[in-house]
Amino acid sequence: MELSLQPLGLFLAFIIRYFVIAGIPFLIFYILFPQYFDRNKIQSRLAKSKDFLREIWHSLQTNVILASFIILILFTPIKEYTNVYFELSDFPIWWIPISIILAIILHDTYFYWMHRALHHPAIFKKAHLVHHQSTNPSPWTSFSFHFLEGFTESMIFPLIVFTLPMHPIALITFGLTIFAINVYGHLGYEIAPKWFRHTFLFEIFNTSVHHNMHHSKFKGNYGLYFRFWDRIMGTEHPDYVKEYDMLQEKRFRVRDKSGSLAK
């Protein structure tokens, strides 16, 4: 199985992916039904149009950087030195979902330590401040990075393909999955179901509240997908669970017959 998508098509695919996966939630939560989802809103204040435009501009730049990394890896002689394989028969079919899970775990570890490094005073203003201009993030924030951070974020792809055997199907699925999770983290609204709080999953996975607190507080909650590293390293914000519970309590209150709010 050879790649049929050409470099120009890959650039366009990344741009389209950004506007579809970030644009649909933005349309639903910010344009069409903001009043319906008002109880889900993590921060009461609203971002401005100029913030959205700034985020889109920087995200387009990041998408170009990401696509360039993929092109360099898959469309140049470098490809021969990676662990990317093109024949499904080269590995058992069950390896595809396993490789995606391992790539996500590897990415979470890489992201945590890279993210903490970006918060070092000597680096923060030069690279990471662009992302933190979005103190009240939206779906458009998901790829809103300074050029230097976009480059650093993109380094996960060579790290993965030089570490794990990955089929293009796995790479594409990984890319779509991590971007969708990234949009959820920056959504600005909490959509986790009520039952989630009382399962072991809550102890493992991050939520939109978790990452939103990082944007509003600037410190703590450095993890991307999981709570592991923050909890191990003592960097999870001490008020995270309380903030999450307060928002969920607001979300799931019901109106009594008189129209007043009740639990």
Compile the SSE list and pairings.
Elements: H1 7-32, H2 49-74, H3 95-118, H4 121-132, H5 147-154, H6 156-161, H7 168-185, H8 200-204, H9 208-217, H10 228-233, H11 240-251, E1 254-255, E2 261-262
Antiparallel strand pairs: 1-2
Structure description:
The relative contact order is 0.14. It contains eleven helices and two strands; from the N terminus they run αααααααααααββ. It is mainly alpha-helical. The chain has helices at residues 7-32, 49-74, 95-118, 121-132, 147-154, 156-161, 168-185, 200-204, 208-217, 228-233, 240-251, and strands at residues 254-255, 261-262. The chain has one domain (7-192). A two-stranded antiparallel ribbon has the order 1-2. Helix 1 runs antiparallel to helix 2 (49-74), helix 1 runs parallel beside helix 7 and helix 3 (95-118) packs across helix 7.
List keywords for this structure.
mainly alpha; 11 helices; 2 strands
Which strand order do you get reading across the main beta sheet? 1-2
Note poorly predicted spans: 255-260
Give the helix proportion (percent range): 55-70%
Number of domains: 1
Task: Determine the mean pLDDT.
Answer: 93
DSSP helix count?
11
The coarse silhouette is: globular
* Percentage of β-strand residues: under 5%
- Biggest beta-sheet profile: 2 strands, antiparallel
N- to C-terminal separation? 56 Å
Rg measurement, Å: 20 Å
Number of strands: 2
The helix/strand class is mainly alpha
One letter per element, helices H and strands E, the order comes to: HHHHHHHHHHHEE
Oligomer description: single chain
